[in-house]
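User: quick one - fold this with adenosine-5'-triphosphate bound?
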Amino acid sequence: MKYSELMIRYGELSTKGKNKMRFVNKLRQNIQEALAIYPEVTVYFDRDRGHVYLNGADYQPVAESLKKIFGVQNFAPSYKVEKSVPALKEAVQTIMKNIYQDGMTFKIAARRSDHSFELDSRDLNQVLGDAVFTAIPNVQVQMKSPDITLRVEIRADAAYISHEEIMGAGGLPVGTSGKGVLMLSGGIDSPVAGYLALKRGVDIEAVHFASPPYTSPGALKKARDLTRKLTAFGGNITFIEVPFTEIQEEIKNKAPEAYLMTLTRRFMMRITDRIREKRNALVIINGESLGQVASQTLESMQAINAVTSTPVIRPVVTMDKLEIIEIAEKIDTFEISIQPFEDCCTIFAPDRPKTNPKIKNVEQYEARLDVDALVERAVAGIIVTEITPEAVADEVDELIGDLL
Ligand code: ATP
Ligand code: MG
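Assistant: Sure. Structure tokens for the protein plus adenosine-5'-triphosphate:
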């Protein structure tokens, strides 16, 4: 027997009341896009369930793709069976013989959405349970937490049987919470922050600051590769490269060493906020983690954050490094993040940055620079590209490979 569909339960989406269909429609769209790489597969969603019809496609790779899509609580690979009592009996017997191991307990959980079917759910539980006893005489029934639950659903077109439930990614469908811009460096933390924002339904665009020739093409490629990893969870991601060399040189020339970091971060924040506005996004997301480095003390955060009133979401702010790394490994960004390409902040980093910058000083040093014009030029020079899950990757690699 071959699985015919993956049946999806919405989980948290069921609590959305009147808004539910907006969430469900977005989920359907995201699933359709993610599964477009499997030409046979079709998708149908109703109020209570989503159905991914395999139409002959192998179920395992499709299930792997589905596991990464936010908004799916769990899903059950299901067999399609002719809607008749003899066919159902034969099916439960075959399935049980396949999966039963000595000592296991079971139950049948039947549901009838087609009320014209000859047996109701109670009778179905009885008749199909008896069929299982005939096939495996020693098996025990157990109502509460049995080892095997055979779910039988009588629908309009056919009957469906499932016996395993696969955990989904949980969260909310990407795009249902609006859009945010992610400040993406080449480090470990910001891709994890991006993943966690996607998980709560935020559609992201990635903003990356590059300072060539101080930063290498390798650092840029790293940021793009990290972005590509994130597309597995949310589909295409717009990648925005910001030319940051002029600003870093200006700061280096005109501000005292101890304040380089604070000033640099304030510029990043201002520019990101301008880009956010241009791209119609609602929030800024970054990978700051409290106390991890000098720029991430509460005093620094306050000085840096002072340039905008836009909400800044910091998904990893209270996590320990090891907790962040655990997620980075799970989402497969860790190996890329630890590649040794310095990004713009490391290169201009002072030996002893201020951990408690004074706003009064910050403003005094900034007055030496033409802040507005510098921001304006950086924003005017952004390069916007679209990063897709697989394809394009090779082209970009070739392009950058030439430069390395
Ligand atoms: P990460 O691992 O994300 O690089 P980090 O621990 O190295 O974080 P910092 O270098 O202090 O921390 O950066 C803090 C945050 O500032 C990053 O998580 C990221 O959101 C943002 N950021 C830093 N450098 C860049 C950059 N070159 N481009 C875009 N955002 C950046
Ligand atoms: Mg970093």
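One thing worth noting: The first strand starts at residue 5 and ends at 9.
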